[in-house]
Write a structure and sequence with these properties.
Blueprint (H helix, E strand, L loop, with lengths): L1 H5 L6 H11 L5 H6 L3 H13 L2 H8 L6 H5 L4 H11 L3 H13 L3 H12 L2 H12 L11 H17 L4 H27 L3 H13 L5 H9 L10 E4 L5 E4 L7 H12 L1 E4 L4 E4 L6 H9 L3 H5 L5 H8 L6 H10 L1 H10 L3 H13 L23 E3 L6 E3 L4
Antiparallel strand pairs: 1-2, 3-4, 5-6
């Protein structure tokens, strides 16, 4: 069927007959089966792209109760992304798809996010509207899907009326409440997974609506003493309970917290962070929960979290933080000294072996080498409220 479609001209008699044949399957079994095969899914995407508004509505209907399964399928997920890209009636798209892939309750939304953290296709389904066609959404194995979408985008120039950015914004607005609710409910699980952190970060940056409760849930995972070791403990009932490492002790957890404090994505072109609007204000949410253990944060692998707090323009407790750091200057200098020497050399060697900054997280250090702001040294001075941060070399 795919090869036949490739040899007919959209709008021709043969094309119309073919389309009617596909739509004529009253049970929708043909369309459902095609969604889970490589060429079949590609064909369905092309039918959506070339179809009229009426055709698209008829093609969408048979997938009722199948979207959740499709979202995690290596081929079916691209059909969902195509519908988001070509159907102008965003209310219809949102009503048909989002309740199935995100559920109707906070718990169902949380389950969807946790499942997406371990499934790249489900993750792309959720992140595509928020992040676009980036490498993080479409890593190597998903490049074929991206090529299909590029083809769809060319076709929709003549078959869809609504501007692509407008369509995407309308769909993001529709899915945002459940995404935000899901982060709030699943924060404790998401922060312990690198892809879960990716989901949480992107949702906090790009979703639309009040994110305060979700940010508070993420901040709550950072509470407690970072120096408590992870391990397995036993309860009075003699059941084993695994204690995950503190969020500040994992590269992905540290990046999540640091990014939320920065309040936006780093733009390579301008060399600065483009903050979201309205501001997240995450530093003010987080600080009361970590204030007691600020020195442990500042001398640990996620020390750049503290640096970002100091550099945050809208952080209300900056002076209090500066006073605490100044009071514990000796501990900071000791940790900074421990991060140099052989540690610095080893970090540089690992960076060369593994490919620069990607080696030890986005900062280019192995965990534990960022003590006391890693290569950034905190020095007493009169400006910036008592501290100056030297750029790493």
């Amino acid at each position: 069927m795919y090869q036949y479609f490739r040899n007919v001209t959209p709008g021709s008699h043969e094309y119309n007959e073919f389309l009617e044949l596909v739509k004529g399957d009253e049970e929708g079994d043909l369309l459902k089966n095609m969604a889970f095969t490589k060429n079949g899914a590609h064909l369905v995407c092309l039918l959506f792209a070339n179809g009229t508004a009426k055709d698209r509505k008829q093609l969408l209907k048979p997938y009722k109760d199948t979207f959740l399964m499709m979202s995690g399928d290596p081929y079916g997920y691209v059909i969902i992304l195509t519908t988001m890209d070509v159907i102008d009636d965003t209310k219809m798209t949102a009503k048909a798809i989002f309740p199935e892939i995100l559920g109707d309750t906070d718990e169902q939304a949380a389950e969807s996010l946790m499942a997406a953290a371990s499934n790249p296709h489900a993750r792309a389904t959720l992140l595509y509207l928020l992040e676009g066609a980036t490498k993080s959404v479409f890593p190597g194995p998903l490049q074929e899907g991206l090529e299909i979408l590029k083809e769809v985008h060319e076709i929709r120039k003549t078959t869809s009326k609504k501007d692509g950015e407008v369509r995407a914004k309308e769909l993001v607005a529709a899915m945002s409440p459940q995404l935000i609710a899901g982060v709030k409910a699943a924060a404790e699980v998401l922060v312990n997974d690198s892809f879960g952190c990716q989901l949480a970060t992107e949702i906090m940056f790009s979703a639309i609506g009040d994110k305060t409760a979700a940010l508070e849930a993420i901040a709550a995972t950072a509470a407690g003493n970072p120096e408590v070791e992870a391990g397995v403990t036993k309860t009075l009932e003699d059941t084993a309970t695994e204690t995950p490492p503190h969020v500040s002790r994992t590269p992905h957890g540290g990046r999540l917290i640091k990014s939320l404090i920065a309040g936006g994505k780093f733009d390579k072109a301008s060399g600065s962070v483009v903050k979201v609007d309205p501001p997240l204000g995450f530093a003010d949410i987080l600080y009361p929960l970590v204030e007691e253990h600020v020195v442990a944060w500042a001398t640990g692998p996620s020390s750049f979290v503290i640096l970002n707090m100091l550099e945050s323009e809208d952080f209300g407790d900056k002076k209090k933080l500066q006073a605490t750091l100044k009071k514990n200057k000796a501990a900071l200098e000791k940790a900074a000294g421990g991060a140099g020497g052989d540690g610095k050399k080893k970090g540089a060697e690992n960076g060369k072996k593994k490919g620069g900054a990607a080696a030890g997280g986005e900062d280019g250090w192995e965990p534990g080498q960022q003590a006391a702001f890693g290569e950034a040294t905190v020095k007493t001075c009169t400006r910036r409220g008592g501290y100056e941060v030297k750029e790493r070399t």
